[in-house]
């Protein structure tokens, strides 16, 4: 087979990265990493957080310029050296980062051509911009008007806009960093289908993902990176590779059980919510939660399953100090007595804690250290007459660092520099220090690697064993099935079922999660 | 050797805090040479302290506001407004000086509450609220004064601004006794506190700064306080306003470092959403922050009017800029969440010594402004550079 210029390709590989070594002051982030991607395939890269996946992609896309690393990159059989992202994009290598880089108050079309404007002598050609944008949107299966503002479309659609933007740059190699991390199952499925369609159009993709079922579904091969080194490349297409096999490569050990054993010791009811109705914070006529009833008993781990937009986080936050919503009605009972939870401090005083799904935005003070984050929700416990005992704070935080296995040499380390798993442990420590009776955990393992997930599950079990009531909100059904004693399903703001562990199957839960209002 | 290397390693980790201190010392040495010794002559040291006192008072409140992620542009106008009111109360109405002071501080709290209300509970950005306040209180200053000046002020208010503690006689023939006693007590307090904290940390087995560094820092602080004591004692003694300032620095440093309230300020400046979800009453914290700024602005207004012995419609013009510059030179972050009271004080001193030194050697106000601008930019650029270098991947 010949390429466009009539040359015979030397290899079938579109990309070869050879012996890449990248050091940062004090750390070897990548050591002798090699990656071969075949023309037209979907190539997955997986590895634990901090293994070096993102660093490798930054080397490839020119974020780290040639010269700042050792090793060679060959693209379409030519050695290449990128000084910046523009260099790599001009050859058709486009990276879509995990945190979407769209400008919220510009339109879809403006975003697609941002930095690459359709113009005549410095003046924007709006007709060309919107027409070409519409054509690109059709290719990614998005039917919205190109003049719609980014703020007006959901995360799933924003991801598609990013891909349309990549297509506008005549992409040959598309790199997607955790593309479905923020998407619900439906949007994820749509996105994965789109990547398969692009493959048929001849676009090669590299996909970084934690989600092994996705890798199995769409990838042709998978390269596993561990501790900055290439471990192996496996052919997935042959369908002989099990998820357990991939996990083994990632963590370097067999994970017979992804969920720790949990024998519930269920006691008295600790929290009950009755007839809980919540309206949208700005659009007061919209009901977000309809008359929800639920309860948790001591020692019990209760799950809340629902598709994105079903109102899971909204339900939790409206109970936790009414931090979401308006015109809230309903009752909250704690140990059988009705309580007020109108502010966060009232909720905390009544023994309710909520660990957010978005720890960077809502959970941590990223510019402050571990100890001050840990003490943040219960500083009063360390204070007399308003004065904090900083030494005692140190002792407390040090205790959590050891018991929670937070990987940092000192509790004076800045939380912004920790990995996702360790940040989540800091968030959990913070709420454990507040010593609540009910702990609501919203997506406790989002963006965390497999090994750290197991640790988080163990901590959740320990908390339940101490007699606390735990509510876990999760998008991942296997996770809920793996750790919960009972699962509520939420659909469009209504609790549709209360399923005990023994009866729960993914199919049954999904059926209740998609049940429409009668 | 290992003690030395661990001390050095600690030193580099604390580069920003030490850097600002070294910058101050370098500037002092530079101007000591350029002014041929005038800068550190006892009378001039006394002058520098007195003449910068009101900016330092403002800088304390300002750095707290900045740590919370806000800004206050109105403090210069508040200084003018309170000075005018103090003149009306104590001169035109003839109220006793102490009553005038109390009423002025209360009025400062009301001014702060007014601005705090709009920022905290109404949600208008502090930049806008205090820009409006800058105009409002400058206007009110002129209304209160009726386009005239008020002078002279009662002796007590004048001594708050520019007076000295009573002279209790001399030691060794030339050193003023009370100043020496205060200086020695202050040194003993600083050393005692530091040693006590270190012992507690030792007992709890907490990590701490290296011993060598601890000793060097303590010795340096002690020598510095004693040197200033010596200089002041050989002139006219302790300025009243230095005592006020000393108390404010100690109290506010403690509030920011050790009180629940201070922690809440850092928390909401570092991540407002996380602070709300941790149960911090962020609106109340913000409101009180502006009330506090108002009171400190009023105090600065009293000190300044007393020092000039004059309430004038232009009193305090542009002070907000010096206070803001002091906070940023002292290491406060534009995005909030980072900064210290001592940093702001050192930042304020750097500006004050630049002003003083350049005036002595005859640099015009045009070039003084230029150089201060460059210093502010350099300090923040140094911060940004450091942050970029330390944030690894």
From TrEMBL, chain B:
CDD domains per UniProt: TM_PBP1_transp_AraH_like
Gene Ontology CC annotations of this record: plasma membrane
Function: Part of the binding-protein-dependent transport system for D-xylose. Probably responsible for the translocation of the substrate across the membrane.
Gene Ontology MF: a single term: transmembrane transporter activity
Major location (coarse): membrane
Parts of the chain that traverse the membrane: 18-35, 55-88, 95-114, 120-140, 168-191, 211-233, 240-261, 287-311, 323-355
Taxonomy, superkingdom: Bacteria
Bilayer topology annotation: Multi-pass membrane protein
NCBIfam families: GguB
Keywords on record: Cell inner membrane, Cell membrane, Membrane, Sugar transport, Transmembrane, Transmembrane helix, Transport
UniProt entry tagged with the keyword Phosphoprotein: no
InterPro entries from the UniProt entry: ABC_transp_permease
Name of protein: Xylose transport system permease protein XylH
PANTHER family registered for this protein in UniProt: ABC TRANSPORTER PERMEASE PROTEIN YPHD-RELATED-RELATED, XYLOSE TRANSPORT SYSTEM PERMEASE PROTEIN XYLH
Species of the source: Lacisediminihabitans profunda
Pfam families assigned: BPD_transp_2
Subcellular location: Cell membrane
């Amino acid at each position: 087979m010949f390429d466009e210029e009539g040359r015979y390709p030397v290899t079938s590989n579109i990309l070869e990265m050879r012996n890449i070594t990248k050091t940062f002051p004090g750390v070897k982030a990548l050591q002798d990493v090699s990656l071969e991607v075949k023309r037209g395939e979907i190539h997955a890269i997986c590895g634990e957080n901090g293994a070096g996946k993102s660093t490798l992609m930054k080397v490839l896309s020119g974020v780290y310029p040639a010269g700042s690393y050792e090793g060679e990159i060959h693209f379409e059989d030519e050695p290449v050296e990128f000084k910046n992202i523009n260099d790599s994009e001009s050859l058709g290598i486009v990276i879509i980062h995990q945190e979407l880089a769209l400008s919220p108050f510009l339109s879809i079309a403006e975003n697609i051509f941002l930095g690459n404007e359709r113009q005549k002598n410095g003046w924007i050609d709006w007709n060309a911009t919107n027409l070409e944008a519409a054509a690109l949107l059709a290719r990614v299966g998005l039917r919205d008007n190109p003049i719609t503002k980014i703020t007006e479309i959901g995360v799933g659609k924003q991801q598609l806009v990013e891909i349309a933007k990549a297509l506008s740059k005549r992409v040959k190699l598309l790199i997607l960093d955790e593309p479905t991390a923020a998407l619900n199952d439906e949007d994820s499925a749509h996105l994965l289908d789109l990547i398969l369609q692009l493959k048929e159009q001849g676009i090669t993709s590299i996909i970084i993902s934690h989600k092994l079922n996705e890798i199995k579904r769409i990838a042709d091969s998978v390269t596993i990176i561990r501790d900055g080194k290439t471990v192996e490349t496996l052919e997935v297409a042959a369908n002989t590779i099990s998820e357990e096999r991939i996990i083994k490569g990632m963590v370097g050990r067999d994970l017979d059980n992804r969920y720790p054993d949990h024998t519930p010791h269920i006691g008295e009811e600790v929290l009950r919510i009755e007839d809980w109705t919540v309206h949208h914070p700005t659009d007061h006529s919209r009901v977000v939660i309809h008359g929800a009833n639920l309860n948790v008993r001591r020692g019990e781990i209760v799950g809340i399953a629902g598709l994105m937009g079903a109102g899971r986080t909204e339900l939790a936050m409206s109970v936790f100090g009414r931090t979401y919503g308006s015109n809230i009605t309903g009752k909250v009972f704690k140990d059988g007595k009705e309580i007020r939870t109108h502010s966060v401090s009232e909720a905390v005083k009544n023994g309710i804690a909520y660990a957010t799904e978005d720890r960077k935005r809502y959970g941590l003070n990223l510019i402050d250290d571990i100890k001050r984050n840990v003490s943040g929700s219960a500083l009063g416990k360390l204070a007399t007459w308003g004065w904090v005992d900083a030494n005692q704070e140190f002792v407390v935080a040090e205790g959590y660092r050891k018991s929670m296995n937070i990987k940092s040499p000192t509790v004076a380390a800045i939380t912004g520099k920790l990995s996702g798993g360790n940040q989540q442990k800091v968030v959990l420590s913070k709420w454990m220090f507040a010593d609540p009776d009910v702990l609501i955990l919203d997506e406790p393992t989002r963006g965390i690697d497999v090994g750290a997930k197991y640790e988080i599950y163990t901590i959740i079990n320990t908390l339940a064993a101490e007699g606390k009531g735990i509510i876990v909100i999760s998008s991942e059904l296997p996770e809920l099935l793996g750790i919960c004693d009972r699962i509520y399903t939420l659909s469009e703001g209504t609790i549709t079922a209360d399923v005990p562990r023994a009866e729960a199957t993914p199919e049954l839960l999904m059926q209740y999660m998609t049940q429409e209002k009668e | 050797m290992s003690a030395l290397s661990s001390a050095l390693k600690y030193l580099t980790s604390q580069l920003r805090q030490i850097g600002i201190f070294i910058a101050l010392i370098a500037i002092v040495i530079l101007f000591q040479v350029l002014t041929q010794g005038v800068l550190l002559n006892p009378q001039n040291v006394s002058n520098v302290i007195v003449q910068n006192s009101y900016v330092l008072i403002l800088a304390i409140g300002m750095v707290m506001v900045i740590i919370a992620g806000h800004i206050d542009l109105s403090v210069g106008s508040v200084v003018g407004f309170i000075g005018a009111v103090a003149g009306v109360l104590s001169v035109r109405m003839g109220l006793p000086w102490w009553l005038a002071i109390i009423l002025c501080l209360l009025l400062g709290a009301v001014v702060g509450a007014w601005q705090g209300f709009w920022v905290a509970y109404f949600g208008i950005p502090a930049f806008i609220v205090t820009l409006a306040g800058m105009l409002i209180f400058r206007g009110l200053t002129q209304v209160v004064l009726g386009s005239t000046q008020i002078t002279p002020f009662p002796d007590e208010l004048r001594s708050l601004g520019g007076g000295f503690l009573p002279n209790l006689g001399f030691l060794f023939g030339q050193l003023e006794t009370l100043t020496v006693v205060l200086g020695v007590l202050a040194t003993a307090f600083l050393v005692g506190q530091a040693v006590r904290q270190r012992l507690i940390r030792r007992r709890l087995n907490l990590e701490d700064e290296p011993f060598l560094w601890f000793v060097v820092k303590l010795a340096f602080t002690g020598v510095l306080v004693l040197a200033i004591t010596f200089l002041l004692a050989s002139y006219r003694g302790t300025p009243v306003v230095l005592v006020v300032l000393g108390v404010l620095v100690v109290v506010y440093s403690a509030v920011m470092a050790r009180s629940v309230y201070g922690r809440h300020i850092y928390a909401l400046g570092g991540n407002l959403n996380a602070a709300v979800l941790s149960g911090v009453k962020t609106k109340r914290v913000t409101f009180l922050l502006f009330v506090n700024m108002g009171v400190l602005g009023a105090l600065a207004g009293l000190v300044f009017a007393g020092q000039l012995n004059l309430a004038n419609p232009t009193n305090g013009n542009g002070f907000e800029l010096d206070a803001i510059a002091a906070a940023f030179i002292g290491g406060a972050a534009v995005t909030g969440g980072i900064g210290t009271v001592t940093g702001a004080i050192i930042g304020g001193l750097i500006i004050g010594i630049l002003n003083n030194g350049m005036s002595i050697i005859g640099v015009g106000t045009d070039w003084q402004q230029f150089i201060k601008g460059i210093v502010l930019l350099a300090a923040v650029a140094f911060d940004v550079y450091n942050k970029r270098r330390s944030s690894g991947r």
